[in-house]
Design goal:
The chain has 153 residues and is an alpha/beta fold. 33% of the residues lie in helices and 35% in strands. The longest helix has 15 residues. The N and C termini lie far apart (31 Å).
Length: 153
């Protein structure tokens, strides 16, 4: 465990920036995620998270700020979230931060679908000891956050 270090990978036109920090519990994916080989991008992330949960921070912020991601990326994101749910401390919290375009946020808000849109996550986290929250942000094209909503599972 002494060799466990933060993980930072620069983004490319097809892969996200990865910034995983063991000291402050900030796990950030930013950019686009349309890799030809998602395993090459996300397997190191999954391995890092598997080590992180052994000595997790009391609050872990998993920030998914991807303007676009493909199906294979979404499969890996679910795998990573499932590993985070294996934190064994019942007083700890994992907050999933999801950034979406403001128009989508407002459409979901008006129809009352924000909570419903994230209901499938409850299937992933149903047996975890750690508390789960989802914070959804409505962003402008420049990334500026205009609205936000917190959902607890």
């Amino acid at each position: 465990m002494k060799d466990f270090i933060n993980l930072f990978v620069e983004q490319t036109p097809k892969t996200p920036q990865v910034d995983l920090n063991q000291y402050n519990g900030e796990l950030i994916l930013f950019g686009k995620s349309i890799p030809e080989n998602a395993a090459k991008v996300y397997e190191p992330v999954l391995n890092w998270v598997s080590q992180y949960i052994l000595n997790a921070r009391p609050t872990t912020n998993f920030r998914i700020n991807l303007e676009y991601f493909n199906t294979s990326s979404s499969i890996w994101l679910v795998k990573i979230l499932k590993v985070l749910m294996q934190i064994k401390e019942p007083d700890y919290v994992v907050i999933l931060h999801v950034y979406i375009p403001l128009e989508d946020f407002e459409d979901m808000e008006e129809s009352g679908d924000i909570k419903d849109a994230f209901a499938p996550i409850s299937d992933i986290v149903y047996d975890s000891l750690v508390s789960i929250g989802i914070k959804v942000y409505g962003t402008e094209d420049d990334g500026k956050i205009i609205k936000e909503k917190l959902i607890f599972i």
